[in-house]
C-alpha cells in the first residue's frame, strides 16, 4: 500500500494497527490490519487478505507492507501454497499443492524448493529427499506399510 496509498496517519493511529478495506487503482483489494510508517504512509502490518485483480489471494501475516510470516496464497488455477513467507516469497517451511494434484511439502528458499521435502506425485506415490531449485537427485520412494 505504501506505493499506492500515500495518506498521512495521525499520531493516535500510529500507536496501534488499524482495520482497513482498500481498493487499489489497479483493482486489487486489501482487507485487514495496517499502521503508519515512520515516513507517515499507511502500510500493511498484522493479519490481512489481499486479492489481486487477476484472482490471486493471499491471506495471512504482513510486515513492512509485504507478505511476511505465515499465510496462504491461492491461485485461480487451483494451485495453493500454505506456509512461511519472507519479503513476498515462499521462504521457510510450507506445502505447495499444484493444480494437477501433485504436492510438495518441505523447505523453501526465495520461492524455490530448497532442502528436505516430500513430493507426492499424481499417482499418490510419495518421494522423499533433498531438493535444490528444480533438481532432486537421489529421491527415495517412501513405502507405506
TrEMBL record:
Alphabetical keyword list: Repeat
Signal sequence interval, chain numbering: none
SMART domains reported for this sequence: MORN
Pfam families: MORN
Alphabetical list of InterPro entries matching this protein: MORN, MORN_repeat_protein
Keyword Repeat part of the UniProt annotation: yes
Protein name per its UniProtKB record: MORN repeat-containing protein 2
Lineage, opening ranks: Eukaryota, Metazoa, Chordata, Craniata, Vertebrata
Amino acid at each position: 500500500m505504501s506505493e499506492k496509498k500515500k495518506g498521512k496517519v495521525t499520531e493516535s493511529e500510529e500507536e496501534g494497527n488499524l482495520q482497513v478495506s482498500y481498493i487499489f487503482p489497479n483493482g486489487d483489494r486489501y482487507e485487514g490490519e495496517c499502521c503508519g510508517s515512520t515516513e507517515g504512509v499507511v502500510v500493511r502490518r498484522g493479519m490481512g487478505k489481499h486479492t489481486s485483480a487477476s484472482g490471486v489471494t493471499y491471506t495471512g501475516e504482513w510486515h513492512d507492507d509485504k507478505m511476511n510470516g505465515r499465510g496462504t496464497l491461492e491461485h485461480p488455477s487451483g494451485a495453493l501454497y500454505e506456509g512461511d513467507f519472507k519479503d513476498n516469497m515462499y521462504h521457510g517451511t510450507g506445502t505447495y499443492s499444484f493444480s494437477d494434484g501433485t504436492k510438495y511439502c518441505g523447505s523453501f528458499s526465495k520461492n524455490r524448493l530448497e532442502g528436505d521435502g516430500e513430493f507426492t506425485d499424481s499417482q499418490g506415490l510419495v518421494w522423499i529427499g533433498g531438493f535444490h531449485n528444480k533438481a532432486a537427485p537421489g529421491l527415495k520412494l517412501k513405502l507405506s506399510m
